[in-house]
Structures are given as structure tokens and as C-alpha cells.
Design brief:
One of its GO terms (biological process) is Golgi organization. The chain has 669 residues and is an all-alpha fold. Helix content is 57%, strand content 1%. The chain has helices spanning 15-20, 32-36, 47-71, 73-85, 88-93, 97-120, 123-129, 147-161, 169-183, 197-203, 211-224, 250-254, 272-276, 279-292, 303-310, 332-341, 346-358, 360-368, 373-384, 391-405, 408-413, 435-452, 457-471, 479-510, 521-546, 551-559, 574-594, 600-613, 636-650; strands spanning 312-313, 329-330, 418-420, 432-434. The two termini are 33 Å apart.
Length: 669
């Protein structure tokens, strides 16, 4: 790059880059490095420009791949960066802009080179490239064999030890992004990496003692959501002789170079929301998710996952367990606030899922919050806008609800939270509704969407499980929520009748012909009957546990009583129908005694009186409906491709050629 570079188009012919990738070895003490690291050019701000940068520098990278075994220039560049980082903390404290700028530029070049190297060679070959020195062709020295480990450790130290200031924002972001690039070897393998040189470095040796500090720093970066420094933060006077260092980088470091790592995204345009967000927070969260989902080593569990599973609140004074070597403390209130505010992104929802599922301290804290609606409402919005979300995001949101509904306290408290004017719910004006009733409405809407569109049994099962967990605690259901419960049952009933009719017709038609195989209507019928059974159990659970709290559900039940007739004698539903049939008969009798043409208010009044009069011992007790979320076997087969698809699509920091990606197809990614 160097002092003469001013645009991407000039990079292939840049004399400094040509020398770096040429046949001549360059000593780490050569003045050349000052010239190479003094660049400022119009930097990419979108995916198209990022692609141009990749294409403009690919010839340089290929040349370095070819010549580096003889020159060792990659190792020299890394050593130059390592030597400069030793003074970074002092430079930050002394506001030494120039020193930080050059260190950042060195890391930027390393990151660009690494990305190409990793996409074109195995980890073993990459490791060799870090050992080559300026000796005879193909030889390498033993003292440099751990240069990768030294660089990884240096990047981690940079992240956890350098204070986050305007002048250090760019290099902190570059360090996080370079670690992501180091781990991106997974993108170029179809199978999940279970043994990796980079993983080994990060889980053992010099990097291991920094585990808890790294996880804590990445979490705090996410919590703080620091914006990129404003224009003009870094202002140097350009030299007038035209040589040496270019100091005029107000648009370089402050608002330019960092955008190489933050704006754009493969196949997407920067949105106003994206431009307003914190690139460091976004990249830190992605790195945290990648680290947390590394596979366990044969002899060691993933320490980053251990750290995420065991950290505690700063207000928790209990001693750390000896079984949690990477535990630390963090402010749960700040973390909770950030999680509530950031749920529009897949990665924040995935983080919330991981914390609720794996960290008992976080789960206990969240369930004890008195403002739980701040967390639940964004999750419900994800489900409500299911058409606009990818399936993984919807699954994560749904599993979060399932985990929350495992707690009876949560199931009670959500009916005590009254919300006003839910503007994003378009089907009906909801001027006042409990959080519990809104949750029911959104989950039922998700089920109905799934029935007509995706027909995903897994989604059905989790939706119904969440409703079942809540059913015994239903309180003061909104009339619309009660109607939707019965409407869903009506939809299922019609679907059942339709499949039954198709099966009957198919059977009749097959009697005269043996040419074509029968469609598997029996399997379809079994699935729909399982769902109907579940809905009947949910209604029954509410009636047996909280009948007197839910007059609107009884009203809806009576209004659509004919729906249940066909299931009274059905062998699959006879037992569960006993209570529902009893409630319908009991309240129907009381309404008949009250006379004809009753107003809605009068009917509800009779229902409330009847609920008190109905002897509880007449309702048969069934086992409590309780479903716990259980993670699938080998969850990494789902989570690792998911996390890397988020990196690929939202790490607007980087551009990867889609033709090189092996981990997932571009359709699913």
C-alpha cells in the first residue's frame, strides 16, 4: 500500500505491495515497513467495494503465497506488527495517533492476506507459511514455529488490555475481525472441524489464561454498543514534500479504514439501521458466538463455552466453583438491557438462547426481572413477522419462549403485565391486553402460518409445548386470545376431516386398481390427531386448573360447542374429552335456565357464577403438562453452520467469494 496509494484500483500496481509479495526477502528492521504502513486511500463502504478490494489484491496475495517460502516476508510483516503492539497501551495513554495508525495498518494487511491464505490452503500449509524465514528456498527455522500462537495471543491481549478510546477503536475492531478470519477455516470445509490447529492454539497454551477476560470483553463490547468515532477524530498534517508518511487520515482511520470491516455485507446494501449500529459490538458478538461453538477438544472441553456457562452477576458474592475455572463476573442489569434492545439481529437472539439454556445464573436473573415484557415483546415481534425472518431466527425465538415457559413464576407473571396499544399487531386493534394473552395470540398465529406454509413438525411441536407449559396458569385471557384458541382447534378439526375424507376416497378408488401406490394418509392422520390431542389437553389443563379465572375461554368454548361433538366418542380423545364435555354440559344447562336472547355481558356473568358453583371434584385430574427443551444430539451440526452463516451474511467486515464456501450452500446460508 504505502504513501502513494489513494484508491483500490491502484493497488495491483502499488510498488510497496509488489515488493512485499516479490522475490526479495525484507528484514523486519528494514525502513520499507514504515513506507508500506503509511497508506490512506478511499476505503470500501459496501459489499461491491469490498469485492473490488478482494479482486484488486488477489494477484498480490497469490504472489506472496508463491514467494513467501523463500522470502519469509509474511513472518517479517507479522513480527513488525508484534513489535509495534508492545507499545500500544502506552501509545493509547499518550494519544500517540501515528503509532496506533501504523499498527492498525499492519494488522489490516495481515488480515487481508490471511483471508486469502486460509481460503486457498490447509491449516498445515498456513502454519508452514508462518515459519518460513529469509534462508535457503524452502527452509525454515525452529524458533519461529509458534509465530501463529504469538500472533493469536497478541490479538487477544490487544482486545482485553488496550482501553477502548476513539483512537484505539479501529485497531480493536481489526483485532476482533482478524481472530474471526483465523477461525474462518471452517467455512472451507463441508464437515464440522473437530480437530484444528487454530482451535488448539486458542484452547491451550498461552491463549488459555485469557479465556475469561476475552469472553468478558467481547460481552462488554456488545453491551456498550460503542459507535465508530466521528469524522475528524484522527487528524494529522500531511507532509509537504510528498514523501515519507501520509498523515492526512481523518477519513482514513476515523471513518474510512474501519468501514472495510463494518459496512456492506455479501449481497446486501447497508441499511440505515446497520450504519447506525456499532461495528465493534457486532463483530465482538460474532466472534463470541464462533468461540462458544468451537467443538470440544478430545482432552479438553471448550473453555469459551465454559466461561459463558459459568459467569455470574457482579452483585453475586458467592465463591466461584472449582469446577468453573473460567468463571467471571459481569453486570447483569447492563447485559439484560442490551439483550432487550438488540433482539432484531439473529446473533443477539442466538446469544440470548445460549445464555438462557446454558447459564443458570442468567436464567434465574432474567426470570426474576419485574420488567420481563422488555425481553418478551421483541421475541414476540420476531415470531409475528415470521414471513420476514429466516427459519433459524424463528426457531431460536421460539425455543427462548419454551425455556421461559418452563418456569411457573414466569407463566403467572405474564398475565399480570398489562400492555397498551400493541401497534405491530395488525390483525386486530389491541388497546389493552396482558402479556400472557399476547404471547398466546402470537404463538397461535405462528402455528397457523406453519400449517399453511412451511408445515414444519418441529416448529409445531415447540409452539404447542410452550402453550402447554402455560396452560395451567392461564389467567384472565383476553376474549380475542380465547377465540383464537378455539379457532385454531376449529382449523385443526377441518383439516382432520379433510384428510379423513381423502383417505376414505383413496381407499375406495384403490379397490378397483392396483397400479399406483396409496398416499400415506395414515401418517398424515396420525400427525394431525397428535396435534388435536395436544390442543384438547391444553384446553383441558386450563379448565381443570383455572376455570374461574377464564370466563372468556368458557364463552368461546360454548359458542363453538358443536366443534367438539365428533371427538366425544373418538377412541383417541375420549378420555380428555370428559372434562370438556362436562364443562360444556354444565354451563349450557345454566344458560338454558337463564332464558333466551342473553347479552354477552349476561352470559359472562352466568359463566362467572357457574365457575364458583361447579364442584372441582367432578373434573378428572390429568398429569400436569410440562415440556422441557432438550438440545438435539450433536447440536454443533446445527449451530456451527448457523453461526458461520451469520458471519458470512452480517460480517460486513469481510468479503468471501461464495464459490469458495464449503460449509453451507448459498441458499441455506
Amino acid at each position: 500500500m504505502g504513501a502513494n496509494s489513494s484508491s483500490i484500483s491502484e493497488l495491483p500496481e502499488n510498488e510497496y505491495l509488489k515488493k512485499l509479495s516479490g522475490a526479495e526477502p525484507i528484514s523486519e528492521n528494514d525502513p520499507f515497513w514504515n513506507q508500506l504502513l503509511s497508506f490512506s486511500f478511499t476505503t470500501p463502504t459496501n459489499s461491491a467495494d469490498l469485492k473490488l478490494l478482494e479482486e484488486a489484491t488477489i494477484s498480490v496475495c497469490k504472489s506472496l503465497v508463491e514467494k513467501n517460502p523463500r522470502t519469509g516476508n509474511l513472518g517479517s510483516l507479522v513480527k513488525v506488527f508484534l513489535s509495534r503492539t508492545k507499545e500500544l497501551k502506552i501509545s493509547a495513554e499518550c494519544q500517540n495517533h501515528l503509532f496506533i495508525w501504523q499498527a492498525h495498518n499492519a494488522l489490516f494487511i495481515i488480515c487481508c492476506l490471511l483471508k486469502v491464505f486460509i481460503s486457498r490452503m490447509s491449516e498445515e500449509e498456513l502454519q508452514l507459511h508462518f515459519t518460513y524465514e529469509e534462508k535457503a528456498p524452502g527452509s525454515y527455522g525452529t524458533e519461529c514455529e509458534d509465530l501463529i500462537e504469538e500472533l493469536l495471543c497478541c490479538l487477544i491481549q490487544l482486545i482485553v488490555e488496550i482501553p477502548l478510546l476513539d483512537i484505539t477503536y479501529s485497531i480493536s475492531l481489526a483485532a476482533v475481525t482478524t481472530l474471526i478470519v483465523f477461525l474462518s477455516c471452517q467455512l472451507f470445509h463441508k464437515e464440522i472441524l473437530r480437530e484444528s490447529i487454530i482451535h488448539k492454539y486458542l484452547m491451550h497454551g498461552r491463549c488459555l489464561p485469557y479465556t475469561s477476560r476475552l469472553v468478558k470483553t467481547l460481552l462488554y463490547n456488545f453491551i456498550r454498543q460503542e459507535r465508530s468515532p466521528p469524522p475528524g477524530t484522527h487528524v494529522f498534517q500531511q507532509q509537504t514534500d510528498g514523501g515519507g508518511l501520509l498523515y492526512g487520515i481523518a477519513s482514513g482511520v476515523a471513518t474510512g479504514l474501519w468501514t472495510v470491516f463494518t459496512l456492506g455485507g455479501v449481497g446486501s446494501k447497508p441499511s440505515p439501521q446497520l450504519e447506525q449500529c456499532s461495528p465493534l459490538a457486532n463483530q465482538s458478538l460474532l466472534l463470541l458466538l464462533v468461540l462458544a461453538n468451537l467443538t470440544d477438544a478430545p482432552d479438553t472441553p471448550n473453555p469459551y463455552r465454559q466461561a459463558i456457562m459459568s459467569f455470574k452477576n457482579t452483585q453475586d458474592s458467592t465463591a466461584f466453583s472449582s469446577s468453573s475455572p473460567h468463571a467471571f463476573q459481569i453486570n447483569f442489569n447492563s447485559l439484560y438491557t442490551a439483550l432487550c434492545e438488540q433482539q432484531k439481529s439473529d446473533q443477539a437472539t442466538l446469544l440470548l438462547y445460549m445464555l438462557l439454556h446454558q447459564n443458570g445464573n442468567v436464567r434465574t436473573y432474567v426470570l426474576a426481572r419485574t420488567d420481563i415484557e422488555n425481553l418478551v415483546l421483541p421475541i414476540l415481534e420476531i415470531l409475528y413477522h415470521v414471513e420476514e425472518r429466516n427459519s433459524h431466527h424463528v426457531y431460536m425465538a421460539l425455543i427462548i419462549l419454551l425455556i421461559l415457559t418452563e418456569d411457573d413464576g414466569f407463566n403467572r407473571s405474564i398475565h399480570e403485565v398489562i400492555l397498551k396499544n400493541i401497534t405491530w399487531y395488525a390483525e386486530r386493534v389491541l388497546t389493552e391486553i396482558s402479556l400472557g394473552s399476547l404471547l398466546i395470540l402470537v404463538v397461535i398465529r405462528t402455528i397457523q402460518y406453519n400449517m399453511t406454509r412451511t408445515r414444519d413438525k418441529y416448529l409445531h411441536t415447540n409452539c404447542l409445548a410452550a402453550l402447554a407449559n402455560m396452560s395451567a396458569q392461564f389467567r384472565s385471557l383476553h376474549q380475542y386470545a380465547a377465540q383464537r384458541i378455539i379457532s385454531l382447534f376449529s382449523l385443526l378439526s377441518k383439516k382432520h376431516n379433510k384428510v379423513l375424507e381423502q383417505a376414505t376416497q383413496s381407499l375406495r378408488g384403490s379397490l378397483g386398481s392396483n397400479d399406483s401406490p396409496l398416499p400415506d394418509y395414515a401418517q398424515d392422520l396420525n400427525v394431525i390427531e397428535e396435534v388435536i390431542r395436544m390442543m384438547l389437553e391444553i384446553i383441558n389443563s386450563c379448565l381443570t386448573n383455572s376455570l374461574h379465572h377464564n370466563p372468556n375461554l368458557v364463552y368461546a368454548l360454548l359458542y363453538k360447542r358443536d366443534l367438539f361433538e365428533q371427538f366425544r366418542t373418538h377412541p383417541s380423545f375420549q378420555d380428555i374429552m370428559q372434562n370438556i364435555d362436562l364443562v360444556i354440559s354444565f354451563f349450557s344447562s345454566r344458560l338454558e335456565q337463564a332464558g333466551a336472547e342473553l347479552s354477552v355481558e349476561r352470559v359472562l356473568e352466568i359463566i362467572k357464577q357457574g365457575a364458583v358453583a361447579l364442584p372441582k371434584d367432578r373434573l378428572r385430574k390429568f398429569p400436569e403438562l410440562k415440556f422441557k427443551y432438550v438440545e438435539e444430539e450433536q447440536p454443533e451440526e446445527f449451530f456451527i453452520p448457523y453461526v458461520w452463516s451469520l458471519v458470512y451474511n452480517s460480517a460486513v467486515a469481510l468479503y468471501w467469494n461464495p464459490h469458495d464456501i464449503q460449509l453451507f450452500t448459498m441458499d441455506s446460508g
